[in-house]
Amino acid sequence: MPENSNVSVAVLLPCYNEEVTIGKVVRDFKTALPHADIYVYDNNSTDRTAEIAMAEGAIVRKEPRQGKGNVIRAMFEDIDADVYVMADGDDTYPADAAPAMVDKVLEGYDMVIGDRLSSTYFQENKRPFHNFGNRLVRGSINGLFHADVTDIMTGYRAFSFTFVKTYPVLSRGFEVETEMTIHSLNNNLRLFEMPIQYRDRPAGSVSKLDTVGDGIKVMSTIFRMIREYKPLPFFGGLGAILGIIGIVLCGSVTVDFWHTGVVARFPTLIGAVMLVIAGLLLFITGIILDVMAKNDRKAFIIDANQFAMMRRQK
């Protein structure tokens, strides 16, 4: 990272009951980024997280709305900087990777992803359902958006000012990282993945992730964002399923009529026609919403460009 006093860097550490690790995390980032401001947002911790972070020189603020997404929303609203580095307070991410991530943002990338999965994640993380979930989410999103992002759900990222101030944080919990990645892919933002050396939590540090509950939230977020960002495949796919079922039923009734000259299953015929009509309406809905989604992307790009231009003029 260049020694440039004109470049302001903010390190963002959302925390909930991380007294075991937060002191070391703050010290590590102060060493890696000596000119950065380090912010610890305490999300209703019941231990000494805030006290320890403050003693280590971090700027500590409280966020009463529970959930990582709520904390990140508050951070993005409150803090102004040229470059932002976001990590967790559990000492699983190496602070010494931060300068290189900052450099990439200064080169022009909107978001730099600290890629755990290309290095030590599967060796360090002993939770098989987490590993399975990562693969499932990665495959689903990459397939839908024709992308090749390795680590969709990492909590170690760096952002530009424009990204932070134009990204609408909708999620409340741990699914926010997935939302960030989908938002970036949908709007064709500049992404860079940087492999990092992930390490598991140290002894005494407890994960706040609920494997089943948070997994359901992540999948529901993907479902919602596919519906909003890719409405034609979503509604068109549903319409095609209903239409095919309706056509098959109509075909069976038609075959019976061909052989007997009588429509013996008139209710089936009515239901089949209704399914075909419903499928057609869903397909038309998908087309309309797809046009609206493309217009939203155009508006976002225009707004982001204007925002970046205003930032450069300051």
Automatic annotation (TrEMBL):
UniProt domain Glycosyltransferase 2-like: residue ranges: 11-162
SUPFAM superfamilies according to UniProt: Nucleotide-diphospho-sugar transferases
Keywords in alphabetical order: Membrane, Transferase, Transmembrane, Transmembrane helix
Keyword Nuclease: no
Molecular-function GO terms, alphabetical: transferase activity
CDD domains registered for this protein in UniProt: DPM_DPG-synthase_like (cd04179)
Residues passing through the membrane, by range: 232-254, 266-289
Family the UniProt entry places it in: Belongs to the glycosyltransferase 2 family.
UniProt-recorded name of the protein: Glycosyltransferase
